[in-house]
Amino acid sequence: MDPFSSEGELVNIHTSFIQGQYASVLSDYTTSDFSESNRLPVKVLQYRAQCELGQYDQVINSISDSDAKQTPDLAAAKAFAKYLKTGSDDAAAEAEKLSESQADNLTVQLLCGTVLSRAGKQDAALSLLSKHQGSLDAVALIVQIHLQQNRTDLALQQAKSARSFAQDALLVNLAESWIGMRRGGEEYQKAFYVFEELAQAPSSQSATNLVAQAVSELHLGRTEEAEAAMSRALELEPENKIGLANKLVLDAVVGRDTSEVRGKLEKVDKEAEILADMMAKREAFQEACKKYSPRFS
C-alpha cells in the first residue's frame, strides 16, 4: 500500500515534496506531529528534501552508521546523499548492495533505484522499482527512467496504468505532462496547463514548478513568458541547478551571452550534464576543424 496515499496523514507533507516546496517540507512539519508509524517516512521525506537543496553533508552526518545498519530506510537515505554528493562508484555500490538485500522496502526502491539509474544501471533500477506495491512515487520514477531511455511508449503505459487506479493524483498528472513534453505537438500545451496551474497558485508555487512552466513556454515559442517564469524561479532559488541549466538554454535560444549563467552553474554543479555535453561538443568541433585547412584567395 502506498503510505503517501490521499487517505493518510502524510498527504500534505508529501504533496509539498512533489510540488518542489522543499523548504516547506523542512520548516512546516516535525516528526512529533505524526503518529509513531509515520515518523520514519516523514524523516525520510525531509532527508530527501535536504538532498534536493544540496544539503548532502547534513543528511550524511544526521544518520549514524548504527542507525543505518538497523533501519533500511535510513541506510537508503544515507547512501542516496553520499551518491548525490560524490557520484562515486563506492556510493553506487553501497546502494546496489542495499537494493539486493532490502528490495521490498519502498524507500530502498525509490532512493536506491534513483542511484542505480543515475549510475547508468537503468535495467537494475527498473527491476528494483517493479517490486513496488501501488506506489505512485515508484511509477513516477519508472516513467522518468523510460523517458531517459527514449521509450516514450513504455512511459505512457506506466502513466495509463497509474491513471486507472489513481484518478486525478498530482503525480499522475505530472507524469503525463513529462511524457507530453517528450511527445511534443499539442502535448506541449496540455503540459503547460498543468505546470502553470502549479507554478502560479500560491499554495503550490515553487522553483521546480516555475522552471517546468518556463520550459513548456519555451517549447511553445513564448520566450518572453518563459523568461518571466525562469526569473521568478531563480529569485526563489538562485542556486537551483535545474533552473540554471534551463536558464542557460533559454539565454542561448534568445541570443543572449551565456557566460554569466554558465559560470553560476559551474559553481553550483560543475558536473552538470549540460556542461559536460557542451564540453564534448566543443571538443568534437575542434577535432573536426583539425581535418581542414583554411584556404585564402
TrEMBL record:
Gene3D superfamilies for this protein: Tetratricopeptide repeat domain (1.25.40.10)
GO biological process terms, semicolon-separated: endoplasmic reticulum to Golgi vesicle-mediated transport; intra-Golgi vesicle-mediated transport; protein transport; retrograde vesicle-mediated transport, Golgi to endoplasmic reticulum
Stretch forming the signal peptide: none
Membrane topology: Peripheral membrane protein
Record carries keyword Transport: yes
Described purpose of this protein according to its UniProt entry: The coatomer is a cytosolic protein complex that binds to dilysine motifs and reversibly associates with Golgi non-clathrin-coated vesicles, which further mediate biosynthetic protein transport from the ER, via the Golgi up to the trans Golgi network. The coatomer complex is required for budding from Golgi membranes, and is essential for the retrograde Golgi-to-ER transport of dilysine-tagged proteins.
UniProt repeat feature TPR, residue ranges: 207-240
Any one of the GO CC terms: COPI vesicle coat
Family label: Belongs to the COPE family.
GO molecular function: structural molecule activity
Protein known as: Coatomer subunit epsilon
Database matches in PROSITE patterns: TPR
Keyword annotations from UniProtKB, A to Z: Cytoplasm, Cytoplasmic vesicle, ER-Golgi transport, Golgi apparatus, Membrane, Protein transport, TPR repeat, Transport
Compartment(s) where it occurs, according to its Swiss-Prot or TrEMBL record: Cytoplasmic vesicle, COPI-coated vesicle membrane; Golgi apparatus membrane
